Each structure stands twice: as C-alpha cells, then as structure tokens.
Amino acid sequence: MLRALVSLAAGLLFGLGLAVSQMINPAKVLGFLDLFGDWDPSLAFVMAGAIPVTAIGYRFTRVLPTPLCAPAYSAPTQNRIDRRLVAGALLFGIGWGLVGYCPGPALASVGLGNSTTLLFIVAMAIGMMAFTAFQSPMVRRLLQA
C-alpha cells in the first residue's frame, strides 16, 4: 500500500511539473525544438533543473542500502548502444519533433480533453502493441519464412 501511495504521489508531482513547465503544450515544445526558426529556449531551463534533482536521487542510491519502497534497486541491464536502441531513439525523436508530445506529457495532458492528444495516445498505444506483436517468437518465425 505504501508503494502504491508513493507511486501515486510521484506521478502527481511529475504531472504537475510537466504542466507548470508547459511541457504538455505541444506548441511550447515545438518552439523549443525549432532551433533555426523562432526558438524558445525556456524548456532548456526545465531540463537543466532536472539535472540536480536527478543527481540528488542517484546520491541516495549510494547512501541507502535499499530503496524506501522496494526490496532492491533495479539498474538497467542493457549498457551497450545497439541498432535497436538507436532506431528507437530516432523514432522517438522524430515523433516528438512532429507532434510536440512524448508519452509522459501526452498522458499528463489527457485531462485537457484535446482530441489531438487523445489521437496521439491511441496511435502510441497501437505502436506499442505492434512492437510487442512483432517481438513475439511466432511472428519473428513467420517473417523469416
């Protein structure tokens, strides 16, 4: 129960931060990504502000023997750059640049009732399901045949 409450609080705080920083506003994000047009550098300050917060969080991993709400720390197991990672990063960046949304801000802004946001979330869910389907062993065997 404590873990669920902490997760809820963290999610609400994250969503609030996205809303206050206007990262849920696609026009603001696209203005930040438009380096050669009417560039809006304000989101750089949001990202710069995330660095010390993350550094403090990582510092706790060295001080505390276990997390407060989990039995152990879970570090990423993959530590090399491969084609799948690069392709995923490219697709993510292209999608972000085209519509001004990435998954977190899109989900945080769903409450605004914007039909474009809902369309993005549906398309994102379809993409995730398609990826999962194509990763299944049965589909891989069919594609190789």
Description:
With about 140 residues, the chain is mainly α. It has one domain (about 1-75, about 80-145). The protein is built from seven helices and no strands. It has helices at about 1-20, 25-35, 40-65, 85-100, 105-110, 115-135, 135-145. Helix 2 (about 25-35) packs across helix 4. The radius of gyration is 19 Å and the shape is globular.
Give descriptors for this structure:
145 residues; mainly alpha
- Average pLDDT rating: 86
Number of DSSP-assigned strands: 0
Structure classification = mainly alpha
Share of residues in strands:
under 5%
> Span between N and C termini?
48 Å
Number of domains: 1
The radius of gyration over CA amounts to 19 Å
Query: Globular, elongated, flat, extended or rod-shaped: what is the shape?
Result: globular
Order of helices and strands: HHHHHHH
How would a textbook summarize the main sheet? none
Q: What portion of residues is helical?
A: 55-70%
Total of helices: 7
Stretches with pLDDT under 50, minimum 5 residues: none
